[in-house]
Write a structure and sequence with these properties.
This protein has 262 residues and is mostly helical. It contains 13 helices and no strands.
């Protein structure tokens, strides 16, 4: 439970965003085949291979908007899997750099705002307390912009839910620092808002077990045993494809056992 509060946005927990458009005016010829290959690899959970293909595109077309967004997303996702801080930080720094390039090309698109929020959240995981709070406070603006462009963006709803959950459960020192540095916490940063946002994420991506696990964690914090059990039972019934999903299913089963005992 506390792990979710501290690591409010783990990259592997996020689904891929909706397909991004190419940068305005950029010729698609020569890149379509590589982009399609990368998409297929991504759909088949071959993240490292997909990243390599997107980087091939960027080597010859550094302003390819789709490749920038997807490569940023994948650096976040892959970086989170590393145990050592150096590798993790290197991936997160690259993710932020690519996200900023995509945002500069198209600051009003859902995907560029999504990867900005995602990459900032990933960096916050490896920063000190003060910098972490500063970066957490930047996230919501990008995610709000992403959802204003695409209200069905499951990944953006997921980050928003985790943001609400993190802000609603700051410890005393974090609340004091937030008040001194940023004027306090938004009144609607509540567990209820977190649950609503995560429910929307599930509605738009009903097979992503991470969304169920995070929603169940929020309900557990709210002491809503009935809702928590219901979400966990749905999560356990899902089909799993990756090691991360299998690990999340194990955690869901443990949490469900704990809920039955409570």
């Amino acid at each position: 439970m506390k792990r979710l509060c501290k690591a409010f946005v783990c990259a592997f927990l996020l689904c891929a965003g909706s397909p991004a458009a190419m940068a305005a005016g950029e010729p698609a010829a020569g890149y379509e085949q590589l982009l399609q290959q990368a998409k297929e690899l991504l759909v088949n959970y071959k993240d490292s291979e997909a990243l390599q293909v997107y980087e091939q595109v960027l080597a010859v077309a550094p302003e390819n908007y789709e490749a920038l967004c997807k490569a940023s997303y994948l650096h976040c996702r892959i970086g989170d899997r590393f145990g050592d801080e150096t590798s993790k930080i290197n991936h997160f720094l690259k993710a932020r750099q690519l996200a900023e390039q995509a945002y500069a090309l198209n600051p009003t698109d859902a995907e560029s705002n999504f990867v900005m929020g995602l990459s900032i959240g990933c960096q916050a995981m490896v920063e000190g307390p003060r910098q972490r709070l500063a970066e957490i406070n930047q996230i919501k603006g990008y995610i709000d912009a992403a959802l204003a462009c695409d209200s069905s963006h499951a990944g953006a709803w997921h980050i928003l839910g985790r943001w609400y959950f993190k802000m609603a459960n700051l410890n005393f020192a974090e609340k004091l620092a937030s008040k001194m540095l940023f004027g306090g916490i938004s009144d609607n940063a509540t567990n209820e808002e977190a649950a609503y946002a995560l429910e929307r994420a599930i509605a738009y991506s009903p097979t992503n077990i991470r969304y169920y696990y995070d929603l169940a964690s929020v309900y557990a914090e709210m002491k809503d045993t009935v809702a928590c059990k219901s979400v966990l039972e749905k999560a356990i019934a899902l089909r799993y494809e990756t090691k991360e999903e299998l690990e999340l299913s194990r955690r869901c089963k443990i949490m469900l056992q704990q809920q039955h005992k409570s």
